[in-house]
Amino acid sequence: DKAIAVTNQQITKYIHIINNKDDLYREEMGLNAQNQFVISPVELDGAEVSLFGEAISDNQVYVVGEDQSSQNPMIWNTVTGDVVVLSESELLVDENSGETYKENWTGYFLDVTDEGLAVGCFGAPSSVSHAILCDVNDPEDYVVLYEEDEDTGSVAYAISDDGSTIVGFHFDASWTTYGCIWTEGGTVRTDLPWPTEEECGFVVDYASARGMSADGSVIMGYAQDNNYGAWVFICWNRQADGSYKVDASAANKYFEFDYGLGKPYMTFEPNNISKNGEWVTLRVVEEFDPFEAACNNLTFEKCDTEVFRLLALAYDAGRKGGLLPAI
User: Fold this and answer.
1) Phi, psi (rounded to 5 degrees) for 21
2) What are the tens digits of pLDDT across the range 126-157?
3) Cis peptide leading into 41, omega within 30 of 0?
4) Are 97 and 44 in contact (CB under 8 A)?
């Protein structure tokens, strides 16, 4: 039941980059304020499909994301016009009736190298989604990255320029997420150090790696606090011995995990990291009194800009450790 769809169809529609003003829409769609591209629509094997792009290679040859018509991972070669869409299904057994049925897998790619190595996730919606690595030159032999028997799923978010390091997260049996890296073609997985309360300034429920510098020496991610459930920026820096160390100093300094602590931001969410690992862009919401906001029926869609002021910030992760308004 595995199939690969390839076409030379020229894509004549434009790529649209979703801007900061659409953060709320992205949150509603579970997109975590990433920079996405929409390529819509195209003809694939005679049928019109909508391709949704998550990332583009540095050489601008490959766009990766999701074929939204099938909800499957896709790779578009912007030079040749070829579109590769992964497709797979598995046989499952209905727990109530005992009958066997076929379920189509779904997934998406989130990053791609200049050589066409793409990473993302793929799996049956009713069971688990697996982190995958796919070579556009041999898509049928995509690799499911290493998982433990007790894992309940994983997602690969980014790959280093040379393809040697992949970052993302995996779920354990309790659905807690752990930031991790995969090496040696995805056959070896190493968990990144867990961010502690002392390091972050708050109790951490979940952690995830979401991006990295070109050489993998700086990994961008988040720790989810156990109060608001906010995704708070942290990073891991590679040490001389090859291990990684948590840097949560920005979260500790800037994130207001409970009202009245005097810290500036109640949302401190990372978006992207520069190739040299020195800059991280963030989405932030300034500190406000949630009780007052509720009493005045304020929402993100209709709000007093003095209470909610959405900012785009750049954090100098590699040098000064300070914040600058985005230009």
Assistant:
1) -65, -15
2) 777 899 999 998 888 899 999 888 788 999 99
3) yes
4) no
